[in-house]
Design brief:
Layout (H helix, E strand, L loop, with lengths): L29 E9 L2 H18 L10 E10 H16 L4 E11 L3 E6 L3 H12 L6 E6 L7 E4 L6 H8 L5 E6 L1 E7 L6 E7 L1 H9 L1
Antiparallel strand pairs: 1-2, 1-8, 2-5, 3-4, 3-7, 4-6, 8-9
Length: about 210
């Protein structure tokens, strides 16, 4: 599993399994941050079912057990710079209106990866660009990635020799799904460790609703 679901709206809160008191997790520690959009529950369940079906066909493959999501970006930086970045992203999300996503069929690239394609990717790409802009001026240990903005929901990646057999399952298969994106999920990890969710930044109307109630 790529990450553990933990709901919170304060990026300073830690997850139940993420040990920020580790001797390696200091203010000067270098963290890798990953920013993602979750799918709606129905779409997530459908993608998980497709992964399981594919695994029954070709056996275990990379990303077989990862949580379905759309990657907005990832970056590596020290915690003191990460705190500034997260503050900027929080402000950005509070100004961002929730937006719909329409998945329409499957595509592949490099004959190694299979993904569900967001038909209305323009709004996602614009959000990706704004998130990357939030990292400008910060000292980064590794530049914001990906530079090529092609949002997608990964079904399988790094297939290698398994690709042809896997693609047979998706090449002529129709699939549509619709859901609304209401927040940005923030995950982080130290080198060699799994990602843990550390924040959930609500979009504009969702943040207002939370304040009201």
């Amino acid at each position: 599993m790529l990450f553990k679901h933990i709901k919170n709206t304060n990026y300073m809160l830690k997850s139940t399994k993420f040990n920020t008191m580790s001797p390696f997790a200091t203010y000067r520690s270098v963290w890798e941050y990953l920013f993602v959009l979750n799918l709606g529950s129905k779409a997530e369940q459908e993608i998980v079912a497709l992964k399981k079906e594919l695994q029954s066909k070709i056996g275990l493959f990379p990303s077989a057990h990862s949580v379905p999501h759309i990657t907005i970006g990832n970056v590596i930086l020290q915690q003191k710079h990460a705190e500034i970045l997260l503050q900027r992203l929080d402000r950005l999300c509070r100004k961002t209106e929730p937006f719909p996503v329409h998945l329409n069929n499957f595509e592949q690239f490099t004959q190694r990866n299979i993904f569900a394609n967001p038909a209305n990717s323009t709004v996602i790409v614009e959000f990706m660009k704004k998130c990357e802009q939030a990292s400008q001026g910060l000292e980064l240990k590794a530049a914001w990635a990906p530079k090529q903005k092609k949002p997608h929901v990964t079904i399988a990646r790094g297939l290698g020799n398994q690709f042809e057999e896997a693609w047979e399952m998706f090449e002529s298969r129709s699939y549509v799904a619709d859901f609304q994106v209401n927040d940005l999920i923030v995950l982080r990890r130290l080198h060699g460790q799994p990602y843990e969710q550390v924040a959930q930044f609500l979009f504009k109307s969702e943040a207002v609703q939370m304040k009201l109630f």
